[in-house]
Write a structure and sequence with these properties.
Helices cover 49% and strands 18% of the residues. It has 14 helices and 17 strands.
């Protein structure tokens, strides 16, 4: 509460009276009452009326002239410590009078409460109000004044000043909140990552901080950083996670944990938290209340964009699937012709080889003839049937392998474009499917890759087992390819938890950069020179049909891990 009061009067005795009324010396007060009581008893006068010490304590400053008072008000306001109230006498010769002083003070401090005090009535209230202005912050008191009246005015007006400041501060907070919500809801953003970035910026701006990040809490209580501010170093973020990791699952409201302020941001697509390390206390409770509204609005925006992003992704995949189905149909016919022609070429090349060998035998009988007599003799040195046959087989292999690659690609595209009616769930052992898939992939895995298995059969789930085998095969082969150059380790685990079967495939490969990780499930997106970009799209489509979830965690140099969750 602002308890600063300035009294401007040209009589030192009156200034002393104000000080005694508004800031009396506490130590001598009991003695003063005792002396007054003795005087009353000795002289037979009425005992003095008991006046209790004022409940409020004020910081009183005085000035003997208007200009001096104005300069004091100006200095305090410039230093960030404005006065809440000024008592100003009207007549203060030889300098400024009270009206001029009040007007100049009002010019530099429109918020200060002013009480005009005078023993004369030569200036009426309407005239005073007209010259000073702001009548709601102006009172008029005549001398001689009652001490209780001065105390009451000081109490009411200083509290009025505080309430108005709080109301103005609340208005600013509310305006800030509305602007933040308006920005969030009108930004042209279509991805969850962009929404999280905007939310982080708004929260940091709202609490006047610079260092923070948004994290997602996984089901195994692992904390993943989704987005962080540029001011936050990796070391600082790691330290923040270390401090709050054990507490985050229990956080349901704005909390302070080990110097980190945690703001929960929950929505239907995951548990997100905003963590800020450099909030300067104290933060008014009313600001936190408005911040809760901001977080609620942020959650709504995040939900909306998450749904939109998922809908657009599904629509995009469906459109690509329809196009792909048509492409497959158009390509399969000429592809079948190419493969058939390649086989016929292979058969005919064998006939041609036998014919050429017979001809060469016949030509050998003509070696005594000269080239002019029989031109075919010149072909004998060039007729190496084995070499010709080898080249023809190489050409055949190129045609066959190329066509076969196209056939496999068309098969992948066909799988990608299949409709949901091909989904045939049943109760199967996922652990057995993992064993079968590993056996199938064993030849593709290099000898310098060590496989670790961690699951117990039966690991039962209601699923399309053939679809899951395709998921496992794609992920295992991708992991093997990632480690093909230098070898490594592959960990495959499966377990049941919270009504779900959770399978993870982790490798010790080079990891996936952040920019690539965001797009790996997009159809036709690939970083491989010979990849089709459909493998992980098909994987995600199969998991989506199971109403499950697939996600990836990876850092460059630290390998990758794919998690799959499907209902039992």
């Amino acid at each position: 509460m602002n308890s600063r009061i300035i009294v401007i009067d040209d009589e030192p005795s009156i200034l002393n009276d104000y000080c005694m009324i508004l800031s009396p010396p506490r130590e001598g007060e009991a003695k003063r009452r005792e002396v007054a009581a003795l005087e009353a008893e000795l002289f037979g006068t009425a005992p003095p009326r008991e006046i209790s010490s004022p409940a409020e304590s004020y910081e009183v400053h005085t000035a003997l002239q208007g200009k001096q008072g104005f300069e004091t008000v100006s200095a305090f306001r410039n230093s960030g410590n404005p006065f809440a109230l000024a008592f100003i006498d009207i007549r203060m010769p030889p300098g400024w009078d009270g009206i001029q002083t009040a007007k100049k003070i009002r010019d530099i401090d429109p918020d200060i409460e002013i009480v005009i005090v005078t023993a004369y009535s030569d200036r009426n209230r309407q005239e005073i109000v007209k010259e000073i202005g702001t009548p709601e912050k102006l009172l008029y008191v005549k001398k001689p004044f009652d001490p209780d009246e001065i105390r009451q005015l000081a109490l009411c007006l200083t509290r009025k000043w505080d309430l108005e400041r709080k109301a103005e501060q609340h208005r600013q907070y509310l305006e800030h909140l509305l602007n933040s919500v308006r920005r969030l809801k009108t930004l042209s953003i279509s991805s969850v990552r962009e929404v999280l970035s905007a939310i982080l910026n708004e929260v940091l701006y709202f609490v006047n901080a610079r260092k923070g990040f948004i994290a997602r809490l996984e089901q195994d209580n692992k904390i993943l950083i989704e987005i962080k501010s540029g001011e936050l170093s990796p070391k600082e973020s790691d330290m923040m996670i270390k401090h709050i990791s054990g507490h985050l699952p229990e956080v349901n409201s704005i909390s302070q944990i080990e110097g980190v302020t945690v703001f929960p941001l929950r929505n239907g697509f995951g548990n997100f938290f905003v963590l800020v390390s450099d909030i300067q206390p104290p933060i008014p409770e009313e600001k936190f209340e408005l911040l809760r509204l901001l977080l609620e609005a942020s959650s709504e925006v995040l939900d909306s964009v998450s749904r939109q992003e998922r809908f657009l992704r599904n629509e995009k995949i469906a459109a690509i699937g329809r196009i792909a189905a048509g492409i497959v149909h158009e390509i399969n016919n000429p592809l079948t012709a190419i493969l058939g022609a390649a086989e016929l070429y292979n058969l005919e090349s064998e006939k041609l080889r036998r014919l050429s060998e017979s001809c060469m035998e016949m030509l050998k009988d003509c070696l005594s003839l000269t080239e002019s007599e029989y031109p075919a003799v010149s072909l004998i040195p060039q007729a190496d049937s084995e070499r010709i046959q080898k080249k023809m087989m190489q050409y055949y292999s190129v045609i066959r392998d190329g066509a076969e690659r196209i056939r496999v690609l068309m098969g992948n595209i066909r799988s990608f474009s299949k409709d949901s009616e091909h989904f045939e769930p049943g109760l199967y052992d996922v652990g057995e499917a993992l064993e079968d898939t590993l056996m199938l992939a064993s030849n593709a895995l290099k000898y310098n890759i060590i496989v670790h298995k961690d699951w117990k059969s039966p690991l039962l789930a209601r699923c399309d087992i053939n679809g899951l085998k395709q998921v496992f095969l794609n992920l295992i082969l991708n992991a093997g390819q990632a480690m093909a150059a230098e070898g490594g380790e592959l960990w495959i685990s499966g377990k049941k938890a919270e009504g779900k079967v959770i399978v993870s495939v982790r490798d010790s490969g080079p990891g996936i950069p952040e920019k690539i990780k965001e797009r790996i499930f997009e159809p036709f997106y690939t970083t491989k020179s010979e990849g089709t970009g459909l493998g992980l799209s098909i994987v995600k489509g199969i998991i989506d049909r199971h109403k499950g979830v697939i996600r990836v965690e990876s850092e460059p140099g630290k390998g990758s891990v794919f998690y799959m969750e499907i209902p039992e």
